[in-house]
Amino acid sequence: MTPTALASLRQAGDESFIKFMDRFGCTVVQIRNLNLEVTLYSMLLALCLDKFADSLCKKPPGSMDELREQSKGYI
After folding, report:
1. 51: Cα within 13 Å, side-chain hemisphere
2. Would you say the pTM of this structure is higher than 0.90?
3. What is the sign, positive or negative, of the torsion defined by CA atoms of 13, 62, 73, 52?
4. pLDDT for 12-70, tens place per residue?
5. What one-character-per-residue DSSP string does 4-63 give?
6. What angle, 0 to 180 degrees and rounded to 10, lies between the N-to-C axes of helices 64-72 and 17-28?
7. Closest by CA position to 70, among listed 40, 31, 38
8. For position 67, what pLDDT does the model report?
9. What is the pLDDT, as a whole number, of residue 49?
10. 3-class SS at 71?
11. 38: CB partners within 8 A, 6+ apart
């Protein structure tokens, strides 16, 4: 799978944040050598506007582990 697979991901209007994060995470782990900036940018485009997207813009995580930890506060 390539990073372009993230371009088609979108959170559905009625999809819960936790379901979207599970789906996003499953896609991310299938992409080899994925750059963190590409991951964050794709996530911001895919999310319905909410507080988590705002928090990513204000304080971008430095690693995928930080991204996972930051998202736990919104699940």
Report:
1. 6
2. no
3. negative
4. 889 888 898 899 999 999 999 888 888 888 888 887 767 777 888 888 888 888 888 88
5. GGGGG----TT--HHHHHHHHHHHHTTSTT--HHHHHHHHHHHSPSSHHHHHHHHS--SS
6. 170
7. 40
8. 84
9. 63
10. helix
11. 3, 6
